[in-house]
Amino acid sequence: MKKQQFVVIGLGRFGSSVALELMALNYEVLGIDRNEEIVSDMSELLTYAVVADASDEEVLKSLGVRNFDCGIVAIGDDIQMSILATILLKELGVNYVVAKAISVLHGRALEKLGVDRIIYPERDMGIRVAHQLVTPNLLDYIELSQDHSIVEMKVPVCLNGKTLADINPRVRYGCSIVALHRLNNIIIAPTAMDQLQMDDIMVIIGSNENIARFENELMKED
């Protein structure tokens, strides 16, 4: 099977973080940035890293960008450049385009261009931190849509030794425990008879309202 290839445009903090994590996951990554110093620093860390203007169609064509499976526009300080690079990736036929937005207005413009996924790094991190501050057992929070999320939560003392049948989260709270992290193991789609243990991490999916209700009930009992 052909290894997926990613092109990351903009190698600032966000773009370089995405690019390096993709490399760590054993994918091929082309990094593009106008800053020679940044590209020099990243050249030995990525599959390819080039100094280029991503708003120049001929440059992107010469780099073979149309052959990449996914394009990530991570430009954060120049909205015009971000939009131009996004348009070119879409016009060149890149299958899946992800773009970083630095404002709601920027995000709306990207949405109208048909971007497959828009990321608001600062906003998303703020949401995660806020949830973690008010829910001590909450480890991570990922927004799936405006109304639905996935959260990772440590099993509190009140649930230690209980089975999923005992808790019955789908019926009682309208959310589902879809996986359990236990030491170095991951239990996918745990059964009703799987027993929760202290230090387990529950992966919960549901509407924000129902997850909040589940969290609040646990905090009362813990």
UniProtKB/TrEMBL annotation:
Pfam families: TrkA_C (PF02080), TrkA_N (PF02254). One of its GO terms (biological process) is potassium ion transport. Gene3D superfamilies: NAD(P)-binding Rossmann-like Domain, Regulator of K+ conductance, C-terminal domain. Residues 3-119 form the RCK N-terminal domain. InterPro entries: NAD(P)-bd_dom_sf, RCK_C, RCK_C_sf, RCK_N, Trk_Ktr_HKT_K-transport. GO terms for molecular function: monoatomic cation transmembrane transporter activity. Residues 136-220 form the RCK C-terminal domain. This is Potassium uptake system protein. It comes from Paenibacillus crassostreae.
